[in-house]
Amino acid sequence: MRDRTFAPSRILIYLIVSLIAAAWLAPLAVVVLNSLRTNQEIAQGSMIGWPQHLAWSNYAAAWSGFCVAETCAGIRPYMLNSALVTIPATIFSTLLGAVAGYAVSLWRFRGDQWIYGIVTLGIFLPQQMRLLPWTIVLRDTGLMNTLTGLVIIHTIQGLSFTVLFCRNYYVAIPQELIRAARIDGAGFFRIFWRIILPLSPPILVVTVIWQFTHIWNEFLYGVTFTTGQQQPVTAALIALSAAVADIPQHGVQSAAVMIAALPTLLIYLIGGKYFVRGLTAGAVK
Amino acid sequence: MTIAVSTRPGRPAASDVVRRLPEYLTIWVPLLFSAAHLIAFSLWTIWISFTPSTLVPVSGWVGLRNYTAVTASRNWQIAFDNLLLFGCAFVLLSLVTGLILAILLDQRIRGENLLRSIFLYPLAVSFVVTGTVWSWLLNPGLGIQKLVHDLGWTSFRFDWLIDRDMAIWTIVIAAIWQSSGFAMALFLAGLRSVDADLIKAAQIDGAGPIRMYRRVILPTLWPITITVIVIQLQFAISTFDLVRALTNGGPGIATQLPALVVYDLMFQRSLLGRGAAAAVLMLLILLAVLLPYAAWRYVQRRRAIHA
Asked: What is the ipTM of this complex?
């Protein structure tokens, strides 16, 4: 473990790490490069190659010209759907999770540990166990094939994560702070607003990033509960690759994949630290 | 705080409830909704799994008939065998990869932050995206095999994606690439929290780096290892998107997994009762992993309290 900068063993370490890193970056590199190659160029060679001249037109086609099923509006409408589901569901589940996490951690009430335990079970319970009931509920409430339906599902299911994150963060806040505020006559919401919320930004960033990537990347509910024009972008990507199976258009498809992955990739690049924190918080607790 | 709103002790209970109504609503409604939907929906699915439901849920009782139909089907048997193979191979290999990466990054190397970001980025991207990309790379007519052929080595073969016996390994490859960074992150945190005094003592005793890891550092990682195993197994059991995008269960049904069987039964063949039974079977497989883990955690916690 001692630092010996030029020892052969250290050169070997750097070599191995660089090789693995290259392998890890290769899929991303392949998509980026292919998104800049023309369809013919890819058809003549392989998916692995350098673009001859940069075919930026792939991005324009993927964004607004490409056909999925009968509609030829590119993946723009599906990106919009994903945004319209992900943004509200992230905000709602985070806010409700913060209030509920605060209640469970600092306002002890009868049965709070039970409720908390059941809610966090949702992290482990397979989605498949809830698929059929959600289908029936959405159909009976007329929310099948609507973005509202997806927002509701992701908000309720997201609570399992957001309550866990916030509760684990709020238990570290000293009870005396709350007790003192109560003696001053502050109620539940006043304490939340004046004391808890100002202390919350670190955990709210983690929760928002986690929920956003989670909901944006979700596929099973999207493909089950929506069709055609109402689909989120993950479901549309699968429909797209099925649609172009006969006449491969890998250049445009790569651009579409790149666009669909961009929001979560950007969030990871900007807030990677917080993303990892969410990952490990969800794992260890 | 400027105005202190005093709670008068003599206030009657009824108006107290009314006053605190918004509070009850914001705490209880979301929590109860979440908890109730988890329990009610699970019981609902379990109930449907015992009914003769096909296109729509109907009442009735068929006992274990749906379960025997599912477990007798070739689709499920292949899915179950695949899950065993995929689960074991993926968990073991991602554990080893993650541990190696963590140990390498623990050597105080330059660019550690950048490397860590590189190994973790696949986790931020959707399985649909990574599955699609891997399906291109592994496609013999488009990806790695084609590249090697074009370079002149025409006898090179890497066609696991279309090989019935090997296709499941393509899912293992993609899954390892996707999530061994997660194992790395947890292991690295564990390596960094090893007691410095312990390391110093071992150094004074003349332990080299390899002995140090084997005897001193790695044994402290057991709790993390078990956590990683459980979480990766849980991921393996519910794997859906990755396979859907990478092989869609094919060639034929060679890469079928339980999650795909559930979807197929429920929404493509409209056999709701059987689909529900398959979902419950998935839950049972998951419980077989989680219950021993929960028991282990419980014992550990008891021990920590009594120590």
From this structure: 0.91
